[in-house]
Design a protein that fits this description.
Chain lengths: 266, 267
Amino acid sequence: MIEMKTQNVNNKEAVISISKLYKSFEDNHVLQGIDLELHKGENVIVLGRSGSGKSVLIKIIVGLLKPDKGTVKVFGKQIDKISKKELTELRLRIGFLFQNNALYDSMTVYENLEFTLVRNQKQIRGNEVKKAIENVLEEVGLADTADQLPGELSGGQKKRIAIARALVLRPEIILYDEPTSELDPITGAEMNELINEVQKKYKTSSIIITHDLTCAKTTGDRILMLIDGKFIREGNFEEVFDTDDKRINGFFDYNFIQEKHESYSK
Amino acid sequence: MDSNSRHPAKYFISKNIDQFFIGIHDIFKFILQFFKEVFRPPYEFREVIRQCYLVGYRSLFLISLTGFITGIVFTKHSRPALASFGATSWLPSLIGIAIIKALAPLITSLICAGKVSSRFGAELGSMKVTEQIDAMEVSAINPFKFLVVTRVIASTLMVPVLVMYSALVGLGGSFLNVHANEKTSIVMFIHEAFIKISFNELASSIIRSVLFGFTIGIVGCFYGYNAAKGTAGVGKAANIAVVMTMFLIFIEEMLIVQGFNLIYPNE
């Protein structure tokens, strides 16, 4: 059986607060009045089907997309009202893991991290840069890939390097977009473990976008179910799925067929 | 053109006409952003040098070949007409005027439009669709400065250098042909080739090359940077970058030559 993460967050200080957020693309109303608070040190899971607007939500948080209506505050600053300079400063405190990793494919793994680091932390030079990059690569378990190009790495390795690239700037918030997509179950489980390690070691607060219930169960302190542009359910894993709502149960059944088989065989 | 801005529900005139004007507005905004960013630190010197190497050095073989062939072929085509007037001694002057004033800037720029502008369009387009540009932005790095400004500077600097190089190689090719047929010495050839070229004409060629280089860079980057999602978007960005750059080079050539003739009617 997959172990559910035990809730360990008592801090109620909100690092991200979203209120009545709306976003549409022409006639496609993706987000329809979202409210969300991410507390310090917490991993919040946003669960939902593909195309339900999960990625749009975190792209709005980091200022890649603009909301149609509503407020999005990160560390108390309203993201669509701040200056470009303030937005840049804010982005330094946020790590973002793209669904397809978005590694710079013409650069080696080392250069991917160096590129991000030296442009943002001008005070560190030479050996310090090298040491910082080697440390982060070691933490994600890929110290030996420094000279490889992203194209030479496996899917799981690419995800880890993408996390390393985010970690190299020591962010306080990490936004994960489908961290276990396209990974086999074992590599997926390793990724979930890494997410929990990052949370513990770096004291990060995270929003994890996923439709993978194993990921949700093992990494989430709190789960929000996004259906039809709204959060229809919130709580820990058991609370969210303790319902008669077919939209939620269907999601559960489809994801945990394998786990059910395991329990039946026991 | 991000998903926030370019999908009006109702059109002012019609979809195509609106999009044409929106496109013009976007490209001018893009050019304006370039001039805003180009003087603002931090400066990406290393990337500019890398791009100069890719635009300049990596185009040398192609430019040498086309320049050399242009020189020989143009000389061969011009000889019979001049010979009928008994004026083959004017060949070096004719070739000098043709290559330095018209052929070298135009042919080199068109080749660079195909080679460089398409590369910029495809590279930036693929970075756009794989979210690498977004990744830079969320890492607090200015992608416009790193990707666009460096490439436009490189093409603006290197295309004039390639044009001058191409002119020299073209004159070299022409000299070989003239020497083989008319036994003209190299000193005489160079003297004759440059005697009819004034400083203003030379400056006009260089200024045109600078403008063509800028056009090659900015158009390629514009279409790549704003590529639509998917692999088709990358192909379209590369393709339209080349077509648009070539079209603009011809328009600019015509306008500058007309303007130059108005200012200096005797040259």
